[in-house]
Amino acid sequence: MGAVWAGRHQKVAGGVSARWVFFLCVSCFSLGVLVVNRVWSVPDLVKASEKADRYQRGNSEVHINCEKKEASFQNDDILDQVSQTHDVIMSLDRTISNLEMQLAAARASQANKSPMPTKTGGDMSNERPKVFFVMGIITAFSSRKRRDSIRETWMPRGEKLRKLEEDKGIVMRFVIGHSATAGGVLDRAIDAEEEQHQDFLRLDHVEGYHELSSKTQIYFSTAVANWDAEFYVKVDDDVHVNLGTIGSILSRYRSKPRVYIGCMKSGPVLSKQGVKYHEPEYWKFGEEGNKYFRHATGQLYAISKDLATFISVNRHILHKFANEDVSLGSWFIGLDVEHIDERSLCCGTPPDCEWKAQAGNPCAASFDWSCSGICKSVERMEEVHQRCGEGDGAVWHSSF
């Protein structure tokens, strides 16, 4: 090819022959390839680039891992500090609760202000006994047969009642006040019944259906003054109760300072006069047709020591609505209270409670919603106990 180009003497711009241009281009290319091959081949350049990338990525990963480990250590420290702070707060909370309880007991024990009963079913020492829970069975002068139906079924009597307090820390009393004419026939009948059974808690309270909110308030204050309990329970005298199941439920919440346990509901505010459960202060709940705030149904509920103490300390300024269960719920509005909706506290009578027991979900309490208690409880309490009771030995074999 060089000969061909040599035979041609064509001139390019500037007077330089084409063959010399070609010769120079080929020479430069050959020299460049030679230099590259001698110094670093193309595959080597590619490999070097990949190594550099891997090295850079490796350094970045090490740096990121170090940052993650450092952040993890910092998070662990923060969690430890939060846990320690929570423990300190809980300790202070318990200390404050204990001080409030002591204050309530001191106030309740003062001579002229004391809500202490004249008789409590046993001599009380100056120091309140520590117990698991106190159960107050709200009753009336006319309910002697109801009380007997309970004594013959789910409530221990005599020495067994004392043993229940000593071995299990469970205190049970029928709760009643006095008549408008203190010392009259009605009061003397309760005195005689008390002498026989020793299972009453007598209140400084005038009995009356429309005074249930006041009676409930005084019951908690009186119970707090007599017993240092973890929980305080209120139950009506036409409800069937399984004590072992109640104890198991309450034991779940021992670590919580302010709990309100019951079957939570929110029924209508009844503004029409003359109807059952009429609420004279219906206007406080907004427009007609509104519902109450959530509160436990009145047949049975339990509150922790702090809440019972709160009622005792503030009982003179707590407002009382027409319905006792609404009143109790209103006292906890605005407080840091945990509402526990426990449906086993409001089972129906047979066959409802019977089916649940067979399914492994024993009921803690049974009654008929249509009667706000067991319909014809005097006649039916034994039947309910036989079909839905947990067994007379259950409470004794339970570990709380």
TrEMBL record:
GO CC terms: Golgi membrane
Query: What subcellular locations does the record give?
Result: Golgi apparatus membrane
Q: Which cofactors, if any, are listed as required?
A: Mn(2+)
Could you tell me the membrane topology recorded for this protein?
Answer: Single-pass type II membrane protein
The principal location of this protein is Golgi
Q: In which pathway does it act?
A: Protein modification; protein glycosylation
Per the UniProt record, which EC number(s) apply here? Answer: 2.4.1.-
Stored InterPro entries: DUF4094, Glyco_trans_31
> From its record, what is one biological process in GO terms?
embryo development ending in seed dormancy
The protein in question is named Hexosyltransferase
Source organism of this protein record: Dioscorea cayennensis subsp. rotundata
